[in-house]
């Protein structure tokens, strides 16, 4: 990788994650480990060769590490190191900042981006209302969300204890809801989305899911 040759911390950080696709690889590993093919599927536009190089660079810099599952699985996973996970606040802040750009490209949001948007938009003052453990089944993947007194945790895994509410859907339906192409009620009526749990927990889960994608209130003019 090329270096800026500048001892400033900003330049040194960009020496590590400034190459094209590098920070998006970090983004897609924030919720948990992934196989190479899953990473590649979640980053449309990146070639296998470029992704391989970015993973190699990030591994050499100590941001990403490889983990091989034992037989009979024989699967190689890529995951963030502790130093790599320390990039999460930067990625979430950059996501909030970047979402204010004038126009969005025509590409589709990945599931990692949708769930990280939930984390980026989390309001700790509402934690008491949203407090609980939730499980999401999106296509073949499972995620769990835990809201505590002042924080929100999301990971690509099953909930460690029975969840208070569950949501089951496919990524296309989830995208359509977040993009306001269909309503949650319409998705429920069609059967493309299912909710389980008690009513309070289901309401908390849907509020948590939809909050980052609600239109910002427009300022009112006062006479």
From TrEMBL:
Q: Which domain of life is it from?
A: Bacteria
| Matching SUPFAM superfamilies | SCP-like, Winged helix' DNA-binding domain
**PROSITE patterns in the cross-refs:** HTH_HXLR
Q: Does the keyword Ion transport apply?
A: no
Q: Which UniProt keywords apply?
A: DNA-binding, Transcription, Transcription regulation
Among the Pfam families in the record, one is: SCP2
Output the InterPro entries linked to this UniProt entry. Answer: HTH_HxlR, SCP2_sterol-bd_dom, SCP2_sterol-bd_dom_sf, WH-like_DNA-bd_sf, WH_DNA-bd_sf
Domain (HTH hxlR-type) ranges: 8-106
**Keyword Transcription in record:** yes
PANTHER family cross-referenced by the UniProt entry: TRANSCRIPTIONAL REGULATOR, MARR FAMILY, TRANSCRIPTIONAL REGULATORY PROTEIN
The molecule here is called Winged helix-turn-helix transcriptional regulator
Its source organism is: Nonomuraea roseola
């Amino acid at each position: 990788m090329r270096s800026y040759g500048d001892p400033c911390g900003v330049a040194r950080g960009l020496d590590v994650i400034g190459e094209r696709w590098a920070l998006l690889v970090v983004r897609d590993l924030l919720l948990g480990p992934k196989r190479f093919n899953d990473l590649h599927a979640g980053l449309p536009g990146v070639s296998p060769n470029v992704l391989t190089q970015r993973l190699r660079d990030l591994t050499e810099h100590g941001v990403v590490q490889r983990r091989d599952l034992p037989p009979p699985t024989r699967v190689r996973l890529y995951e963030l190191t502790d130093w790599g996970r320390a990039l999460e606040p930067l990625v979430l802040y950059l996501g909030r900042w970047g979402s204010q750009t004038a126009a969005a490209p025509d590409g589709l949001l990945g599931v990692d981006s949708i769930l990280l948007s939930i984390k980026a938009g989390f309001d700790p003052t509402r934690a008491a209302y949203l407090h609980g453990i939730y499980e999401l089944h999106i296509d073949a993947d499972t995620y769990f969300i835990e809201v505590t007194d002042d924080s929100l945790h999301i990971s690509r895994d099953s909930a460690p204890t029975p969840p208070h509410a569950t949501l089951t859907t496919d990524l296309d339906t989830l995208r359509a809801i977040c993009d306001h192409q269909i309503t949650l009620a319409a998705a429920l009526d069609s059967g493309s989305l299912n909710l389980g749990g008690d009513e309070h927990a289901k309401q908390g889960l849907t509020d948590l899911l939809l909050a980052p994608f609600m239109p910002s209130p427009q300022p009112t003019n006062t006479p």
